[in-house]
Amino acid sequence: MGSSAAQNGKSAFSAETGLPPAQPTGVSWQYLNSFDGFADFCCNQVMLYNSAYNMLLWYRQGMSNASGVNRFLLSVSTDGGDTFCTYQTFPTNTNASWTNQWWDYPRLQVGADYLYITSNLFNAANHWTRTVMLRWPLDKLAACSGFGYNFTSTTTWFTWAPVQNADHTMYFASNNPTSSPYNRLRIWTWREDSAAVNSNTTLTIPAWAYTNRGQAVCGSSTNNWAARGRSGIDRRSLPAAHDERHPAGPHRPWLVVECEGRVRFCSATRGWCGGVRKHVEPVAGCAGTADPV
């Protein structure tokens, strides 16, 4: 993740790749050390706040070792970040057969009763093996207790993006099938009263000019807004695509790219790109177990 932020009332937490999360105290920022108790911390980290449990969630990803294995830590705070309860998870903690594999590209969202964690898995040769979603109970996390959990995985679709504000049903999607035809989008449904994924729907997407990572430029500008953009779905695009307050109006088709920690929305019908901070720039075209450690 390029950047991540969470807010709990008057407290805000912000994390950037290569930088630790920052917690504001008064008029200054207090820096939390991402390497604290995590010497093998690598890069990806995600901050998320759940108001139902007044719970701050801090995901940190570790570096893979010589055997192609890494871990992630999920730190949980219910006192505004003063103290954290931390869970450690290796791929084999979820499935004992997932040996010599490492987590990458995490995404976190919450439903009514569960935290959803998605990640890709790669082997020691850095080849993708599967995409995984873990479902962890929020009440157990808030209580800093151990728990069993459900998970699902796929070897035919690369990278899942869960929606925000899912309530009692989680929806997640991928636009990266591993076999032809490649112009497909699949959406999965997972009800919180069900141990397994309930259904999925596959859509065929009209052809478009594919742009590789680092090559997308909006309009005639030489600024490459997508210098670090990924070709997969960005979870933050889902609510924004139907935002009545967006300057291009509601229900507009968007191309959403993440670039150097910022998100750009390129309207397919209005021909301009805007930033997430209401800044507009006109352009021309464009089941396992977990225990706290």
Describe this structure in words.
This protein is mainly β and 293 residues long. It has two domains: 205 residues, no CATH class; 79 residues, no CATH class. Helix content is 5%, strand content 45%. It contains three helices and 21 strands. The strands form six sheets. It has a five-stranded antiparallel β-sheet. A four-stranded antiparallel β-sheet has the order 5-6-7-8. A hairpin with a 6-residue loop joins strand 13 and strand 14. The protein is globular, with a radius of gyration of 19 Å. About 18% of the residues have low confidence.
Which stretches are poorly predicted, pLDDT < 50 over at least 5 residues? 235-286
How many DSSP helices? 3
Tally the beta strands.
21
What is the element string, with H for helices and E for strands? EEEEEEEEHEEEHEEEEEHEEEEE
The strand line-up of the biggest sheet is 9-10-11-12-21
Report the structural category. mainly beta
What is the total number of structural domains? Answer: 2
How far apart lie the N and C ends?
24 Å
**Whole-number radius of gyration?**
19 Å
Helix content: under 10%
Mean of pLDDT: 76
| Shape descriptor | globular
Beta-sheet strand percentage? 35-45%
Quick recap:
The chain has 293 residues and is mainly β. It has two domains: 205 residues, no CATH class; 79 residues, no CATH class. The chain has three helices and 21 strands.
